[in-house]
Every structure is written in C-alpha cells, then in structure tokens.
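Appendix B. One record, verbatim.
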Amino acid sequence: MQEKEIEYYERIENWNFDDIKCDTVKITDWDFYEKIKENTNKNSLCLDLGTGGGEKVLQKYPNVGMIIATDISKSMIKTAKENAKEYPDKKIKFVQMNNLQMTFPKGIFDLISARHTIINAKEIFECLSDEGTLVIQGIDKMDCIEIKKIFKRGQGYNDKMSIAEQDYNDLINAGFSRIEKVEILEDEYYETEDDLMALLLKTPILNDFSEVNNEKIEDKDRVKKDFFDEYVKRYKTERGILLKRRLYGIVAKK
C-alpha cells in the first residue's frame, strides 16, 4: 500500500485545487486550522504531517514559532519548497519523511497536525511535549459513498473498520488521555462535470491503493465514463453537481 501511495503522489506532484470550481456548504461547525490556532501560540513548534505541496499549510496555518512540514513524496516536497517562495515571511521548513517512521527527538513538538494522511499514533505521542496536542482531519469510510457505490470501489470502501475508529483506538493505545472525535459533514457542489472529473482524477476517492494491485493506472482508467455519467445524472442540481463529504476530526492531548 505504501509503495502504491508514493507512486501516486509522485505523479500528482502538487495538491492545489484552486482551478476546480466548487462551492462548499459546511454542515458541521469544526475547522481544522481553527483547532490548530486554538492550541498554539506565537512560540509554538509545530509539525505538519502529509503536507503535500504545502498549499494549505502556507495559506492557512496560524502564526506560530516554527512549522516543520513533511511528506513522503519527494516531488511533493519539491513543489512545496517552490510554493514557499511566495510566502517569504512564513516560518516553515519542508522535509521529506515517512509518517510511519518519524525521526524527530522525543517531546519536541507543541502541536502535531495531520490532514488527510496516515499516522503512527505511538510515534506522535513520543514526539509531543507534555500537554502537547494532536489535531487530525481525515477521510471517513462513508465519504462520497454515493459515488463509491456506483463504481463499487473507492477509498475505504471495503474496510471493515473506518479510519476514524482505527485512529481513535490507536490514540488510546498510544497513551492519549483526552480525545475529542467529531464527524464532519460537508456538501460540495461542483460547477461543471469537468470540475468534478478533475477532483476524481487528482484524489484517491475512487482509487483505494489496496484495491489497485499491480495494475498500471492511467487517467482514462481512473474514472469510467458510464459510471461517471450515471452519478452526474443522479446528483446534478441547480447549484451544481453534489458530492457529499463525510470526514472526521480529532483533537487529542497527552
């Protein structure tokens, strides 16, 4: 799974969705970067895991003492460093690293953030300072379930346990004593079919890495047109093409 994931993100190279026209309606009042802001100050040392091309951390991360931002993909880190040139005042360093094999000293970070990425709960616990905080936003098993059912595949589609449940259990076993977990509901309305197609081609919503086997994935294989057309027909509204997002948020303290 890890090898498939690395190959996938090496091809993508960036995580910028600015060109995709989408109107998001937040149903749940929970914001990843607000939670980070609530648990940091201007002196905090923070670690951002799975930072991708750095677009989000550069644009939305609050003002803190220093951010170390990591990603497993060499191409993503290269893109992030290029993007960082547009934010010369941002106190940030981008480093290539595997989330499951963290190499930082124990007790060093005041806050660790992980958005849409895998984690190693025990290593995160060890890297956090006393009273340190972990903030997670992840993809739930039921995310985009309507389109996954049409394609009969997708991220977490065949998982017996959701990633949210797994993360929660892992955090308890790692030693976290105060854990808040919430379900995050959002409705996304894509302006055109091309906008929705662009999202599906750039994300693993319909391409869980464990279901790909050794098949070589090309763009044309990622989204079968007949299934796509069926989904658009069912969920096209006056506001746009609806995609129901089902995420989860976690704030955990040592």
